[in-house]
Amino acid sequence: MAQVPQRFFDALAVRTWCGLSLRALGRAREEIDAINVYPVADGDTGTNLYLTVESAVAAVEAVFAAHEVDEGPRATGEAPLGADTGPSLADAVGAMAHGALIGARGNSGTILAQLLRGMAQVLTARGDSAHTEGPGLRLALRHAAVSARQAVAHPVEGTVLTVASAAADAADGAEGDCAEVARAAYEGARAALAATPGQLPVLERAGVVDAGGHGLVTVLAALVETFTGRAPGPLALPHARVEHAIREEHPTREEHPTREEPPTREEPPTDEGENGPAFEVIYLLEAEDAAVARLRQRLDALGDSLVVVGGDGLWNIHVHVDDAGAAVEAGVEAGRPYRIRITHFGHGDAHTTKAERPPRERTQRAVVAVVPGEGLAALYAEAGATTLLARPGEPPASGELVQAVRRAHAREVVLLPNDAELRHTAAAAAEQARTEGIRVALIPTRSAVQGIAALAVHEPERRFDEDVVAMTSAAGATRHAEVTVAERQSWTTAGICQAGDVLGLIDGDVAVIGADVSQVAATVLDRMLSAGGELVTLVLGDEAPQDVADRLEARVRAAYLAVDTVVYRGGRQRALLLVGVE
């Protein structure tokens, strides 16, 4: 179905653009991941861009929800310019930029966050204007390209920065409305993307275009669709899967264990994961401008791929280093770092060679699971799974999932994401692991309780396909629910909730709104068991009332005689209570 075109760049256009960008990146994610060879061939650029935009979308939607928008005639782009029916343009672009900043993942995601911030700086400077037209959009795209280039310590041509500059150049020559400017920017970016293999040798050798640039072209295509109602046609670019080329260009540490002398600044490194720094370090930082300026100098001396984006006291720091601790310590000296994320690019210790540490034999099969709390991590580990802890509000990136699969050191891996929001990330990680010769089956578990059910029937001695079918069946037969607390007022499938309300979600949808945790949990359990069941699994978070498990167990014993109950302590997790019924 064709998108209803927006006439101006206003708050609703921002919302539309963000949503279309997210859907477009979701479709292109695997293709972008597959061509990711620079600066590190870790196969997660598409996923990182998707997660960055996903965070921007969430922030924009929160602004609209706070205004309780009734779009009415605005949905057609025909609302009176002065109509006060929702957030302002400044509100929307500010939320978009902030959401992208706090959710930025990887090198390209961090640069995209700065591009969006650069646009927002221009658009919010226009005061109380309800919208902008073609000239304003041109200025925003230009400032975005300039600010993104300034955020990168050592800009390299043939990357997303080149594509952003070309988009701004093409927009500068466009006359007319936002649709004309967006079309010109897209065409300029697409032409620049096609030329990237001739600018960066690693791309030319692999036979691909720049992955980050491809992602930006995808986002600009969504901008065209926002103002014209139709997406541009598919890109006619090199995009064949290049696993063999990538492996030849970037051998693993086990194949190439020695470190070479780092390349000079004039010749950008072809792969920092093999011949450069061993770790990617990302964190948010609350700090003053002067402290961040000093931090830039210190991190630039420690490693490569330094990108510092943000402002107004909040920054996103991205750098590739050998000494991850030193990069974090530098942040502590500059201000308050948090949401610290460290990813190791290589297999095993970055400073250990084969001669010092002979490779151990791979096991035949392993289970890798994402778990929401320390208690469940211990439970899964006792059952033989390799676990990756998902910190509250910080879902793992695909690179972390790939590292967990490698850590399992098995020929066959069953991957349990245990979260519906991780489906794209887990799929990208599975695809990357397959390029390394690991047979990976992704079971789309939407909750940790479904993962528990799958793990309970796991039998490594069975044929791989049979084991996967049995685990998938067990997970699918387990209904899942959670009890949590609303963070803000919003519309739900059960009505309007207020901040602080207790929510009961069944299979991902809000089914109960209440004030008491035990009462909401009991209602949720009754509704789930009304369809039958033999086993109830309860996973309590640290914030849950101490007596809620006893009350629920007593309720099951009294009302459902043939149903057993098992209780686990989940530790620090997003939900107060997870419930599974199988």
Descriptive keywords:
582 residues, alpha+beta, six-stranded mixed β-sheet, globular
Descriptive report:
- There is one protein chain.
- The chain has 582 residues and is of the alpha+beta class.
- 46% of the residues lie in helices and 18% in strands.
- It contains 20 helices and 18 strands.
- The strands form five sheets. A six-stranded mixed β-sheet has the order 15-14-11-18-16-17, sandwiched between helices. It has a four-stranded antiparallel β-sheet with strand order 4-5-3-6, with helices on both faces. Strands 8-7-9-10 form a four-stranded parallel β-sheet.
- Helix 4 packs across helix 5.
- The radius of gyration is 25 Å and the shape is globular.
- About 11% of the residues have low confidence.
Secondary-structure blueprint of this entry?
Layout: E1 9-10, H1 11-34, H2 45-66, H3 89-103, H4 106-124, E2 131-132, H5 134-151, H6 160-172, H7 178-195, H8 201-206, H9 211-228, H10 243-249, H11 272-275, E3 279-286, H12 289-302, E4 303-311, E5 314-321, H13 324-334, E6 336-344, E7 363-371, H14 374-382, E8 386-389, H15 398-408, E9 410-416, H16 423-435, E10 439-442, H17 448-456, H18 464-476, E11 479-485, E12 490-492, E13 495-497, E14 502-506, E15 509-514, H19 517-529, E16 535-541, H20 548-559, E17 564-571, E18 577-581
Helix pairs in contact: 1-2, 1-3, 1-9, 1-16, 2-3, 2-4, 3-4, 4-5, 4-9, 5-6, 5-7, 6-7, 6-9, 7-9, 12-13, 15-16, 17-18, 19-20
